[in-house]
Amino acid sequence: MTPTTTPTAHAPAHARIFRPHRDDVLLAVVSVLSGLLLWSLGIYNTSDRHFFPAWAALVPLLALGPMELLRRTAPRVTLAVGTVGVIADQFTVGNLATVLVFTDLMYAAVVYGKPAMARRLPVHTGLVTIAVTVASVAWLRTPQSLMIGVITGIVCFGPALTGATLRNHREAAEAARLRAEQTALLAEMDRSQAVVAERARMARELHDMVANHLSAIAIHSTAALSIDSPATSREALGVIRENSVQGLAEMRRLIGLLRDAGADQEAVATPSLAALDALLGQARVNGAASGLDFVLQGGLLPGEPLPAPVELAAYRIVQESLTNALKHAVPGTVRVRVTRADGLLTVRVESPYGDRPGPRAPGSGAGLVGMRERTELLGGEFSAGRAGSVWLVRAELPAEEKAVAG
């Protein structure tokens, strides 16, 4: 079957059918009919001009009337024809409709023409009005000669000024609309970024709260399944139960925080560095079966308050480092050190590195990503990698309130 083609917007310009605006068609028809009516009734602009017969006044009228059809699409052409026509009309008995058509063509040239022409026409018509006024007064030397300048201003300068005013209002409205759209777009982008940031924060909190307990559960359940010993199974079940209860409590706290359950709930759900001893104690219980011990070296001096975001980030980094040690570290001692000096809070966690026998908990790599994000959001520096026989996690966080707020 041969496909049929239909005219589209991509067709060449010469192939498109010209269709004037319906208002322009109405203007053209009314202008011509009005001019013909005035001429038939013998109503002329003046009766003392005898350069041409009376019917000659119809020539400028019939030339300018159809120009209304092009006032939007070809304003430069219509203005040129209109200027010639209105000048020619002055050598006949004159027709008021011809003058009115010219004023509309002048107005349309400013409104629909190019910006440069729209800027120049009010200035040029103003200068023409002044020149005609001065010339009339100098030539005729009568007070009535001022009316020639007034009429010139009404016919050419007035429409140009009106068109320029309307165009300026339209451009200002369009600029305001574009600014509103840009503002709405920026607001939508900010909202989307805020949603993404909030989701990332929720993901970090969920991972850091629950991953430690789930890792311990995975390790001890694997140990209970692989070692056929009632004592080992009972010990593993005890650790599994304890981590299950604690993990469930952490989940409830997180859900309560997300539901905005209140300031008290939020305070409970936000840990601090004062709880590091309890965190390491839990890690010792969870890592005993893997031959791991956990030691806290040094610590912050009392009476040194930290910004809440910094303290939370430091706690979560230590928590995630301990979780990774439970998953991957070989038997040995995991050393945790948190110090503050020169406006920086330094978190350092060293885990024994090597080939680990026995059961392992699977890892996704989200923990390292979360620790790095927490550090960078506060303007700190984070590094994690092998350093000799240990796996070293190190984070430097700004310890001053001003640095965090900035």
How are the SSEs placed, and which strands pair?
Elements: H1 22-40, H2 58-64, H3 75-89, H4 96-112, H5 115-140, H6 145-226, H7 230-258, H8 263-269, H9 276-287, E1 292-297, H10 308-328, E2 332-341, E3 344-352, H11 366-377, E4 381-387, E5 390-398, H12 401-405
Parallel strand pairs: 1-2
Antiparallel strand pairs: 2-3, 3-5, 4-5
Short description:
The protein is built from twelve helices and five strands. With 406 residues, it is α+β, with helices and mostly antiparallel strands. A five-stranded mixed β-sheet has the order 1-2-3-5-4.
Describe the structure.
It is a single chain. The protein is an alpha+beta fold. It has 2 domains: 18-185, no CATH class; 272-406, Histidine kinase-like ATPase, C-terminal domain (Heat Shock Protein 90), CATH 3.30.565.10. 62% of the residues lie in helices and 10% in strands. It has helices at 22-40, 58-64, 75-89, 96-112, 115-140, 145-226, 230-258, 263-269, 276-287, 308-328, 366-377, 401-405; strands spanning 292-297, 332-341, 344-352, 381-387, 390-398. Strand 4 and strand 5 form a beta hairpin. Helix 4 (96-112) runs parallel beside helix 6 (145-226), helix 6 runs parallel beside helix 10 (308-328) and helix 7 (230-258) runs antiparallel to helix 8. The protein is rod-shaped, with a radius of gyration of 43 Å. The two termini are 69 Å apart.
